[in-house]
TrEMBL record:
Cofactor(s) required for function per UniProt: FAD
Enzyme class: oxidoreductase
Name of one Pfam family that matches: FMO-like
Family note: Belongs to the FMO family.
Nucleus in keyword set: no
This protein's record includes keyword Oxidoreductase: yes
Biased composition (Acidic residues): 423-442
Source organism: Zizania palustris
Keywords: FAD, Flavoprotein, Monooxygenase, NADP, Oxidoreductase
Record protein name field: Flavin-containing monooxygenase
Record-listed E.C. numbers: 1.-.-.-
Length: 442
């Protein structure tokens, strides 16, 4: 294989990232095989009513461990306008009878099914084909892909591999001080499906991300009390006005000797359950490469979250960043990979990419950011999209989409569930017009 012209590409995973990666690779003329270990495409969006036998889900290799982390009632946290792909929008078309601006998970899954079919990607997907080991062969000799399917184990060689195995499956569970004193139940949101098991309980929800907010709200309808603990509550600590039984707390300080959950602000509660909504760990059990690690949830080294300098461009990762317009970010990353492989976009030298990664890490350290936030794009989320767009010769993110995303985040943090049904698209047009006017004045 020449450094920039792949002929065959394996994609690991047929979730949103794998599907759009396959489309972009096909568009660039590559021969694509998508390996998907489950029986369907759609990844996370294929709701699975089962949950892990271990409520914390700490061992992804445990018998019965499940991939999906969606709860039964889940509706998107972004409006459908932000959840499509270019040339294939979720906006303006109904896929599973749910036309709401913030649809339920079945609508998104049906959208991904239709995308796979209509883009022609479906014909390149092998279902029930689990990639067990990926390893580089000699220089220029491509990658060995060992996989297991219905007919047993097999090995094939590809020029390039794009890893799209998802990162919302293996729980990240913080170790609370004094956890050995805890006698109640605990679980991670990965295993939360419905609120009924929390009837009349006092529940401490750890984490104030989109899932934490949704789940706390849903549980509050049946629970006695819900306490949401987060380092981001700052001056909002106290009872939440719009709910009878929900409190915002600062971070959990410790579990006291008497088993109470004590918060940083000094209050303590006797709780039945601690529910961790604390995010996920990156996990690549099949990857057999040197000089590449997941260290405190930093995957790397990775040039702009996508290419490991040592193996670029034949190994790439699509879909690692979080806290952004996810599907747009994934699509732009996929397009960059496809173009680099076909020679229509260029990468710096291995040494320059490695230096760029080091510089990025150095800046994070200087700003006091923990390693585990390496792939969290906030607050510079739009810069990553703009940077990728520049690599493939496309315009930066539209102001309308940026405003819409930031408005959605603000809505989530109000804790008021009505935002999904009272969302006004016209407001976004007004905001955009205002921004354009300001630009003209400036
Ligand atoms: C609770 C929750 C709510 C969310 N809400 C939103 C939202 O509202 N809007 C939004 O844009 N995003 C949301 N997301 C983010 C969501 O993860 C992305 O939208 C997107 O689905 C990620 O796609 P992916 O392809 O990267 O991963 P996944 O969807 O996880 O797909 C990965 C695929 O890889 C397969 N796989 C894994 N390992 C192997 C292997 N070894 N061999 C073969 N196949 C393998 C899996 O079976 C799976 O099908 C949410 C996520 C969660 C968990």
């Amino acid at each position: 294989m020449s450094r920039t012209r792949a002929r065959t590409a394996a994609v690991v995973g047929a979730g949103a990232a794998g599907l759009v990666a396959a489309r972009e690779l096909l568009r660039e003329g590559h021969a694509v095989t998508v390996f998907e270990r489950s029986g369907r495409v759609g990844g996370t969006w294929a709701y699975d009513a089962r949950s892990d036998p271990d409520p914390l889900g700490l061992d992804p290799a445990a018998p019965g461990a499940v991939h999906g982390s969606l709860y039964a009632s889940l509706r998107t946290n972004l409006p459908r306008e932000l959840m499509g792909f270019s040339g294939f929008a979720l906006q303006g078309r109904v896929f599973a009878g749910d036309p709401r601006t913030f649809p339920g998970h079945r609508e998104v899954l049906a959208f991904l099914d239709a995308f796979a079919e209509e883009s022609g990607v479906a014909g390149h997907v092998r279902l029930r084909a689990e990639v067990r080991r990926l390893r580089p062969l000699g220089p220029g000799e491509g990658w060995s892909v060992e996989w297991r399917g219905d007919a047993g184990d097999a090995e094939e060689v590809f020029d390039a591999v794009v890893v799209c195995n998802g990162h919302c499956t293996v729980p990240l569970v913080p170790k609370l001080r004094g956890i050995e004193n805890w006698r109640g139940n605990h679980m991670h949101s990965h295993n939360y499906r419905t609120p009924e098991p929390f009837q009349d309980q006092v529940v401490v929800v750890v984490g104030l991300g989109a899932s934490g907010v949704d789940i706390a709200r849903e549980i509050s309808k049946v629970a006695k009390e819900v306490h949401i603990a987060s380092r981001y509550t700052q001056d909002r600590v106290g009872k939440v006005d719009i709910y009878q039984n929900v409190w915002l707390r600062s971070e959990v300080d410790c579990i006291q000797d008497d088993g109470k959950v004590c918060f940083m602000e000094g209050s303590a509660v006797t709780a039945d359950t601690i529910l961790y909504c604390t995010g996920y760990r990156y996990h690549f059990p099949f990857l057999d490469v040197d000089d590449f690690t997941v260290d405190d949830n930093r995957v790397g080294p990775l040039y702009n979250h996508v290419f490991p300098p040592k193996y670029a461009p034949s190994l790439s990762f699509v879909g690692l960043p979080s806290k952004s317009i996810v599907l747009q970010t994934i699509e732009m990353e996929a397009r960059w990979v496809a173009r680099v492989l076909s020679g229509r976009a260029e990468l710096p030298s291995e040494a320059d990419m490695a230096a760029a990664v080091q510089e990025h890490n150095r800046r994070m350290e200087a700003a006091g950011k923990p390693k585990r936030h390496t792939h969290v794009l906030m607050p510079g989320w739009a810069e990553h999209i703009d940077w990728l767009a520049a690599q493939v010769g496309e315009p930066p993110l539209e102001a309308r989409r940026r405003n819409m995303y930031e408005k959605a985040l603000r809505c989530i943090w109000t804790l008021d569930e009505r935002y999904r049904d009272t969302w006004d698209d016209d407001e976004d047009d007004d905001e955009q017009e205002e921004e354009e006017e300001n630009k003209c004045i400036a």
